[in-house]
Amino acid sequence: MISLAGRDILQAWGKFIFTGVGLGLLIGVTLTMAGVYRGMVDDGRVLLDSSSADLWVVQKDTLGPYAESSSIPDDLWRGIRAMPGVAQAANVTYLTMQVRKGGEDVHAMVVGVAAGEPGTPGWPPQLVAGRQITRGHYEAVADLAAGFQLGDVLKIRRNHYTVVGLTRRMVSSSGDPMVFVPLKDAQEAQFLKDNDAILMQRRRTEANPAFNRPGVPGLLDAVIATQTSNSSVNAVLVRLRPGFEPEQVAEPIRRWKRLTVYDRAQMESILIGKLIATSARQIGMFLVILAAVSAAIVAFIIYTLTMDKIREIAVLKLIGTRNRTIAAMILQQALVLGVIGFVVGKISATFAAPIFPKYVLLVPADSIAGFAAVLAICVLASVVAIRVALKVDPADAIG
Q1: Distance CA 263, CA 253 (A)
Q2: Most CB within 10 Å of its CB: which of 14, 101, 209, 337?
Q3: Spatial contact of 226 and 73, defined as CB atoms under 8 Å apart
Q4: How far apart, in whole angstroms, are the C-alpha atoms of residue 115 and residue 180?
Q5: pTM (predicted TM-score)
Q6: pLDDT tens track for 78-96
Q7: Is 272 a residue whose pLDDT tops 80?
Q8: What is the Rg, in whole angstroms, of the alpha carbon atoms belonging to the chain?
């Protein structure tokens, strides 16, 4: 009966091929959607890896610098650095914004890194071209995904930065490329107000009698200086000494510094379980819809092919062919259609992944699971056609 199923496929090969290609494109979209989810998870892990940190110290009762706003004084790192088990502690700021190059804007995450050397928490771990930041101002290291080149001049807020280094796969949890700048410049971009806002704030302060007391010289200037200062950071990245456990170091910081501290596992749980949870559910719904549509397509084409050969099936029954053999023939056709569709889908997903706007990570395990799911869908989709075939009356062959 394998040859009989093959002969029947050859007779309707055009319909099989076109249906297989259409089904394959649908399967390709399904594999790509799964790859998008895997890519989002990988982006979150890359973000954590790029920080080179074991602990994230953030504002009390916040979820940290990636999930929500966090602001702490920029001098806390010294006290944290002196805590037992701490090998390195460095300030860092994160700001998602538009970075301008000439007349074009690029949506990027601007990372402010503390002064130090390669290996300092927060610094890009490796470069593919150029060098690391060596000056305290107006230099930048950018990810290749931003489309910048060495020597390009970027505008961040009101300052200009020269790209001195390029890195790869340094992205935010949403896939935005990172641009690393000196910490002081990043603080100014994130926390310092523009000139017009400073001028208006100064006028409000001067008009406030509480800050303009003749008997207290210098009070007004002190208040204005405080309002226009930029002495905050989003987090302190901590690297542990060998032999110390994360919780062993985190608990004293929570107790004595009155701050919230997350280790790598907790931060990954926040990124994956909270930031991309909604997107994951949406992708899951799309996968269910695509699976249902795929099943409907396979069921329709197999049902159509079965109805086209009702007389042939009646002849088979008339000559004594068992129902099991007829069912096997229809099932084999459905499985062949599924295999053609999966091959086309896998090829289309592989070629589409590099040009997709978001990072798509195709995992072999997903392909194996997808292939098994396609075969299962084809088996279920063939049930309707098999039921119709088994109800055919042998007398129809001579009717």
Answers
A1: 12
A2: 337
A3: no
A4: 12
A5: 0.77
A6: 999 999 999 999 999 999 8
A7: yes
A8: 31
